[in-house]
């Protein structure tokens, strides 16, 4: 009993912090939760991934409600449901790939290479003149989209579903930048819509995991840690959207790109390849991932801040074209 109380005390503040960041950026936080569960509580990787996905159900529901309460226009339900149609089949494909590939490192590397330019684009974003978050002019409707944009956003949502099924992620790491880059969503609207979309991907993934664990000893572990972590995520899901409008949208984009780099480094297992090739220590591999993340992310942040500072020194008539077209 004392151990359960001790674990609860540890998990709650950690999941609270992750929940705030997840709600602000529109991601599930799986890239951070899964390693922590493995290192601190010695959970098997498969169980830790499932627990992470289950806890994301809570933050996605609460985050969506909180965003809608503070500003209904930030959650684009029509676009969100449109994305779900493509995301759920992708989740099924991801789960299928996870079952037929004993080592999915090649697939992880492909995803990492494809997503890195997206992280770079988010981090290198520049201010957009007269950008009003969730303006009436920025509310995107499906009927307004060109055929090419529809194809691109469906493909992005399908890939997000594959990530969810294959790696236990919520899919926000791909949905948020897709909404920003393809559909010109402001970062807060993209995060809010991503939260809504994740309700479906995380729920379906958690149901599948529950069915897989129902005949094993892992079921109790899955439910206990998922519910405890979900408790902290719920609180974070309320807090994040409450203060989202007070945070600079450009800063959120850079924060998302910075976090996405860690997710990609973890996805590609770079820390294990460079610091622990034999795979004997998950802790050492995670430390390696963190070092690589900081070595890549911090210089990019410095360049990003330099570009913004340089931009602010330019005359108004020299204002550059924004990164989102």
What is the gyration radius calculated from CA atoms?
19 Å
Mean pLDDT score: 78
The SSE string, one letter per element, is HHHHHHHHHHHH
**Main beta-sheet strand count, sense and barrel state:** none
How many structural domains are formed by the residues?
A: 1
**Coarse morphology:** globular
Strand tally is 0
Structural class: mainly alpha
- Number of helical elements: 12
Helix content: over 70%
N-to-C terminal Cα separation, in Å?
56 Å
* Unreliable sequence segments: 128-137, 318-325
Proportion of residues in β-strands: under 5%
Give a brief outline of the structure:
The protein is mainly alpha-helical.
Your description of this structure?
The protein has one domain (2-318). The longest helix is centred in the last third of the chain and has 31 residues, at 282-312. The protein is 76% helix and 0% strand. It has 325 residues and is an all-alpha fold. Residues 128-137 and 318-325 have low confidence and may be disordered. It is globular, with a radius of gyration of 19 Å.
Spell out the key features of this protein.
325 residues; mainly alpha; globular
């Amino acid at each position: 009993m004392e151990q359960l109380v001790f674990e609860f005390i540890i998990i709650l503040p950690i999941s609270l912090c992750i929940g705030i960041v997840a709600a602000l950026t529109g991601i599930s936080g799986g890239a951070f939760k899964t390693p922590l569960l493995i290192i601190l509580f010695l959970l098997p990787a498969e169980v830790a991934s499932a627990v992470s996905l289950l806890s994301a159900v809570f933050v996605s529901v609460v985050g969506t409600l909180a965003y809608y309460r503070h500003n209904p226009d930030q959650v684009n339900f029509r676009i969100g449901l449109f994305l779900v149609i493509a995301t759920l089949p992708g989740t099924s494909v991801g789960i299928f790939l996870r079952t037929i590939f004993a080592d999915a490192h090649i697939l992880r590397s492909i995803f990492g290479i494809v997503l890195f330019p997206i992280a770079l684009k988010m981090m290198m974003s520049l201010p957009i003149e007269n950008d009003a978050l969730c303006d009436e002019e920025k509310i995107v409707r499906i009927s307004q989209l060109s055929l090419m944009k529809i194809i691109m956003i469906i493909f992005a949502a399908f890939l997000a579903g594959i990530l969810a099924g294959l790696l236990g992620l919520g899919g926000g790491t791909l949905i948020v930048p897709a909404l920003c880059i393809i559909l010109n969503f402001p970062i807060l609207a993209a995060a809010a819509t991503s939260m809504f979309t994740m309700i479906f991907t995380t729920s379906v993934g958690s149901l599948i995991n529950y069915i897989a664990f129902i005949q094993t000893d892992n079921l109790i572990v899955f439910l206990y840690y998922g519910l405890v972590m979900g408790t902290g995520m719920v609180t974070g899901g309320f807090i994040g959207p409450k203060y989202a409008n007070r945070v600079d949208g450009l800063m959120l984009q850079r924060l998302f790109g910075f976090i996405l780099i860690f997710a990609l480094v973890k996805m590609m297992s770079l820390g294990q390849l460079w610091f622990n090739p034999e795979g004997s220590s998950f802790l050492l591999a995670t430390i390696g991932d963190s070092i690589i993340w900081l070595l890549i992310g911090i210089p990019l942040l410095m360049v990003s801040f330099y570009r913004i500072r340089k931009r602010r020194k330019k005359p108004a008539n020299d204002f550059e074209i924004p990164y989102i077209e």
